[in-house]
Amino acid sequence: MSAVPSSVNQMPGLPSAQLDPQVAQLLELIARAKRPPINALDPEDAKIAYEKSAPILDISPPAVHATEDLHVPARDGHAIPARLYTPREASWAEPLPLLVYYHGGGFTVGSVNSHDALCRLLCGEADCMVLSVDYRLGPEWRFPAAVNDAFDALHWIFAEAGRLGADPARIALGGDSAGGTLAAASAVEARNAGFAPVLQMLLYPGTCARQDTPSHRALAEGYLLTAEMIRWFFAQYLDQEASRDDWRFAPLDGGGNGADVRNVCPAWVAVAGYDPLHDEGVAYAAKLRAAGVPATLANYPGMIHDFFKLGRFVPAVAQAHADAVAALRTAFAQP
After folding, report:
1. Catalytic residue flag (residue 177)
2. How many domains does the chain have?
3. Catalytic-labelled residue, pool 177, 186, 215, 243
4. Which residues does the UniProt record annotate as the domain Alpha/beta hydrolase fold-3 (predicted)?
5. Is residue 10 situated within a structural domain?
6. Tens-place pLDDT, residues 70-87
7. pTM for the whole thing?
């Protein structure tokens, strides 16, 4: 991975804001370590490396009332692993709100374990149950396996919420990066199925069919997520090139128009100024607004991709965590 370009603020497509000082220091440390990037590994080694590295920069996992590992039935008979987090005792009389969460990792790496600390934080601070979904990954399972698992988990939780102590009238969807793509697609599926989630919380989501925005061009190297990594992830995930034009992969513009987002649930979209995915997150929030969907765009100009999981090293991430929690609490409090 290359060091941070010295001409950073002269590059077209970049924000005028400087990198957060701790983020800049982190990128320099990564560059000096000269470890092979994830796209230089075979997929199995990449999965192992990601699981080992995920907790290093993340916050310490907060305590919650209870966790339960369970399985969600998929349409093809597969049992989708999932983890249910509970902030306090639920009851039939007082069911709890619930967030369905899809982890990031380019549809190739990541798991409920890699995102355990974040899910615990959201559970405790937003006072909601969290169902973290371990959807199937590439290259063993290619598109649309991850999408189907995400949709099947969505249908299951709306059917089973009451049994689990969750309130079916207060269910939110969320995810980061590739998980943000799945959450955005799941919001459309929810609308199609007649469900009414209260929020889609999209953390630096991937939404476009092709990575040719100004932020992709300007931030192709040196900011944690590189153009080569993105190409590698999609090579593991996509079953064929034509799937780029499927709205379930590219809800912004797949097939030209992307997903029909009319009447989907409100959105809270977080983007990072130094993330190649910045522009497509901004554009997706604009697409939602143009369709009449309430969409809040939270911009963190000094941050990089995956910054929600850098809280141990970057103190400013705590504010983003607090903002996400506030968005969830507000959505859950709506009558």
Report:
1. yes
2. 1
3. 177
4. 99-308
5. no
6. 999 999 999 999 999 999
7. 0.95
